Amino acid sequence: MKKIHIALLLLAVAGIVGMSFFVKDLTTQETFSTAKEKSGKYVVVKTKLDNSVAIEYDAVKNPNLTVFYAVDAKGQRSKVVYTEAKIKDMERSEGLDLNGYMRDGYFECNKIQAKCPSKYKDDPAQAKKNLASGSANQY
Predict the structure, then answer these.
(1) Cβ atoms of 47 and 30 closer than 8 Å
(2) How many CB atoms lie within 10 A of CB 118?
(3) CA dist list (Å): 26 to 19, 20, 23, 40, 119
(4) In contact, 55 and 88? CB cutoff 8 Å
(5) Total number of domains in the chain
(6) Contact of 27 with 42, CB cutoff 8 Å
(7) From first to last of its 139 residues, what are the pLDDT tens digits of the chain?
């Protein structure tokens, strides 16, 4: 075999191995009920935090455990066990994308993407004013 063939073969193998790391991120969005049907498979569930139940987080006892309840798009509520520290401003977020696995009676989450609230949601007059002055595009 020529050196170029070996190099191309190694490059192809490296590409396949590299892509395998991203397979988990190529999941479809589920609800808690469909995630339950796919028990043991990595899924993403779009939810909102259930504010009627307090978030359980104790940085002294276990800084890598956060327990809370979330409601999915169909209104189904589930306990969520997040295996990391509580994310900042979780209570203020408009939505949470939970990545993980459905277990017996709860959703085991290892990654959360919080949807930030719009800074103009509460004051549409200020939003119009900022757009008119052009300051909305300044960061």
Answers:
(1) no
(2) 9
(3) 10, 10, 5, 16, 30
(4) no
(5) 1
(6) yes
(7) 788 988 999 999 988 887 777 665 555 678 888 888 887 888 899 999 998 999 999 989 999 999 999 999 899 999 999 999 998 888 888 899 999 999 888 999 999 988 876 655 556 676 677 667 665 444 4
CATH number, domain with residue 91: 2.40.50.140
- Does residue 48 belong to any structural domain of this protein? yes
Phi, psi for 20 (deg, rounded to 5)? -65, -25
The closest alpha carbon to 36, from 101, 112, 124, belongs to 101
The pTM of this model reads 0.65
Domain range for 37: 26-137
